[in-house]
Structure formats: structure tokens, C-alpha cells
Design brief:
Layout: E1 3-7, E2 13-18, H1 21-24, H2 30-43, H3 103-119, E3 123-126, H4 136-145, E4 151-155, H5 160-166, E5 172-176, H6 182-187, E6 190-194, H7 195-205
Parallel strand pairs: 1-3, 3-6, 4-5, 4-6
Antiparallel strand pairs: 1-2
Helix pairs in contact: 2-3, 4-5
Length: 206
């Protein structure tokens, strides 16, 4: 089992924590990780793009000039794709880009992402994360103490003081244990989690 240091909000090491290999020490499946990221990005797409084909553009019902004898190339409609204001060839239409992943595949991908962060020494555990008031400056001090810049902060409970303090920092995102996903884990350089959050993750995914 992997051992990680536990830090307090001042950035001082106050102990160590043994991580469950069933969650933080699995064999990394890069294909599933890739599929999970692609699925999340695809599911976020609105799919509302639309352009008109030549049959949908208004006008163009009359042949612009006669077939022969003008010196021009033959034309059937001023709304053909080669005309300015004409229709679009193979125009995009609204569609649903989303697709499904099996539950087991999602869990395996999440475990792989967490394991990769532990292996890269990019997984930091703090004993607790509490703020007396909503103060972005105070939260930034905590990150500086932990020597972290871009971070996904995983909380066990929805502490509004912490969530709202972190919200104004562009390179930081907070997430609860039931909302973590592969994309966010890989997007941010470091994962910062409270001890309580780690315990919950192990309980759910082990």
C-alpha cells in the first residue's frame, strides 16, 4: 500500500496515511481513461449547430439564365452551394454527441486517474480544510503553504466558506467526493484531498 504524507493548512507534515491499493494502487488502464475523458467532453457538447442545405435556403426556385447560348456555365439555382448566399454542402444538423460508458468502466477509469496522481507524487492529503470566513486570500495562503498552483480540491462536505473562497481562483476547482471525475483529475496538476474525503472515496470505490 502507498503511504502519503498528511499536511496541515500551514503546509507542515503532521502524519502519514496508508492508501487503499484497491483505489489508489490499481493497474492504470490508459484506454479507459481516454474513453472517460472523451465521453465527458462529448456529453458536454450542446450539439445545436445548424446550417441550411440548398433545399432549405429561401429563394433560388427559378433558373438564373437559360441553359445554352449565354456564354455562362449552366446554372440551375442561385442557391446552389457554389453561389454566395447558397446552401452548404453536407450542412451540420442538430445531433446528440453523448454516449455511455459502463459503470465498471467508469470506476476503473477513475481509479486509474487517481493512481496516476499518486504515482506522480501529485496527490496531497490535508488533515482538515476549514476557514472561519469566506476569504480568497486565506485560501490562496493555504495553497502557497502546500506549494500548489493548479489544483483540484476534493472535499468531503460542502463547506461554503472553502468553496466560495476557492471559487475566485482561476486555477483551482473544488469538488465533492461524489462529483469527482477523470477529466478534472487529469486537467489540474495536483489533487488536494482532505483525510475525510480520502476515506469516503475508499469506502465508495474499494
Amino acid at each position: 500500500m502507498a503511504n502519503v504524507a498528511v499536511y496541515n493548512m500551514e503546509g507542515k507534515e503532521v502524519g502519514s496515511l496508508e492508501l487503499n491499493d484497491a483505489v489508489f494502487g490499481v493497474e492504470i488502464n490508459e484506454h479507459l481513461v481516454h474513453m472517460a475523458v472523451v465521453q465527458q467532453l462529448a456529453n458536454n457538447r450542446q450539439g445545436t449547430q445548424k446550417a441550411k442545405t440548398r433545399s432549405e435556403v429561401r429563394g433560388g426556385g427559378r433558373k438564373p439564365w437559360r441553359q445554352k447560348g449565354t456564354g455562362h456555365a449552366r446554372q440551375g439555382s442561385i442557391r446552389a452551394p457554389q453561389w454566395t448566399g447558397g446552401g452548404v454542402v453536407f450542412a451540420p444538423v442538430p445531433r446528440d454527441y453523448s454516449f455511455k460508458l459502463n459503470k465498471k468502466e467508469k470506476r476503473a477509469a477513475l481509479k486509474s486517474a487517481l493512481t496516476s496522481r499518486v504515482n506522480d507524487k501529485k496527490f496531497i492529503v490535508v488533515d482538515d480544510l476549514k476557514l472561519d470566513a469566506i476569504k480568497t486570500k486565506k485560501f490562496q495562503e493555504v495553497l502557497n503553504n502546500l506549494q500548489v498552483k493548479r489544483a483540484l480540491v476534493i472535499l468531503n462536505d460542502n463547506d461554503q466558506n472553502v468553496v466560495l473562497s476557492a471559487r475566485n481562483i482561476p486555477a483551482v476547482k473544488t469538488a465533492l467526493t461524489n462529483t469527482i471525475n477523470v477529466y478534472d483529475i487529469l486537467k489540474y496538476d495536483t489533487v488536494v484531498a482532505t483525510k475525510a474525503a480520502v476515506a469516503t472515496i475508499e469506502e465508495v470505490y474499494a
